[in-house]
Amino acid sequence: MGVRAPLTITEVTSLRFPVCGAEGSPAPAERLLGKTSRMMPAVGLLRIDHVGVAVPDLDAALAFYAETFGLHAVHQETNEEQGVREAMLAVGPDGSGPRVQLLAPMSPDSAIAKFLDRSGPGLQQLAYTVADVAATSAALRARGLRLLYDEPRRGTAGSLINFVHPKDAGGVLVELVQPA
Ligand code: KFV
């Protein structure tokens, strides 16, 4: 029996799968729920990109993460549109895995300031890497989820981003990141 080569990113994002069963062969869920068959585009999450942590003071947080966890920033920037100062911390000996993103507010009306006011410092978002943020956004919209932006916006290091509303994702603000 032959072994199939791993799917390429293009193949992954173009996959479609039956939600309730393929035409002519209703899946158990379809038989139980009596729903019409339909094909959904694959969502295409590739890996965890980063977890975002809201902090009131970026420099103080950078010092804390360095002294306490030995984690250091490999990238820092200001994103005016998002109202944040941010730093990406690499984890592990080669730093190639998911990162920790420290997010500090630039103004009291920014998303991070509101989060800090409501919840205090802590985990604010979970971000996944995707190959095509517009395609993934469309696939999630097709499942009835609310995406925060009609079109992708600029994220860290020239990436393109969108977010799933936390109320549609089990209480987690989900970010989709298409690297530059
Ligand atoms: N996680 C879980 N629940 C959240 C939440 C979060 N981060 N933020 C808000 N909620 C809950 C909140 O507790 C409330 O629940 C409900 O969502 C609606 O709150 O049970 P409740 O009390 O009704 P709102 O609408 O009052 O909250 P608001 O803060 O005005 O807006 C929430 C949201 C998600 C729409 C807003 O934070 C947003 O637009 N976020 C996306 C942009 C963002 O977070 N930017 C900062 C990161 S920039 C970034 O990550 C970058 C640049 N990057 O490349 O990675």
Q: Keyphrases for this structure?
A:
33% strand; 10 strands; 2 domains; 180 residues; two-stranded antiparallel sheet; 24% helix
Describe the fold and architecture.
- This protein has helices at residues 9-14, 28-33, 58-69, 111-119, 133-142; strands at 16-18, 39-41, 45-54, 72-79, 84-90, 99-105, 122-130, 153-154, 160-164, 174-178.
- The chain is an alpha+beta fold and 180 residues long.
- The chain folds into two domains: 9-41, no CATH class; 45-178, 2,3-Dihydroxybiphenyl 1,2-Dioxygenase, domain 1 (Roll), CATH 3.10.180.
- It has an eight-stranded mixed β-sheet, with helices on both faces. Strands 1-2 form a two-stranded antiparallel ribbon.
- It is globular and about 55 Å long.
- The N and C termini lie far apart (39 Å).
- Mean pLDDT is 87; it is low at 17-37.
- It binds ligand KFV.
- Ligand KFV is lined by residues 52, 79, 82, 84, 101, 103, 111-112, 114-115, 118, 124-125, 127, 148, 155-156, 159, 161, 163, 166-167, 171, 173, 175.
- Residues 52, 79, 82, 84, 101, 103, 111-112, 114-115, 118, 124-125, 127, 148, 155-156, 159, 161, 163, 166-167, 171, 173, 175 line the site of ligand KFV.
Task: Describe how the helices and strands are arranged.
Elements: H1 9-14, E1 16-18, H2 28-33, E2 39-41, E3 45-54, H3 58-69, E4 72-79, E5 84-90, E6 99-105, H4 111-119, E7 122-130, H5 133-142, E8 153-154, E9 160-164, E10 174-178
Parallel strand pairs: 3-6, 7-10
Antiparallel strand pairs: 1-2, 3-7, 4-5, 5-6, 8-9, 9-10
Bound molecules: ligand KFV.
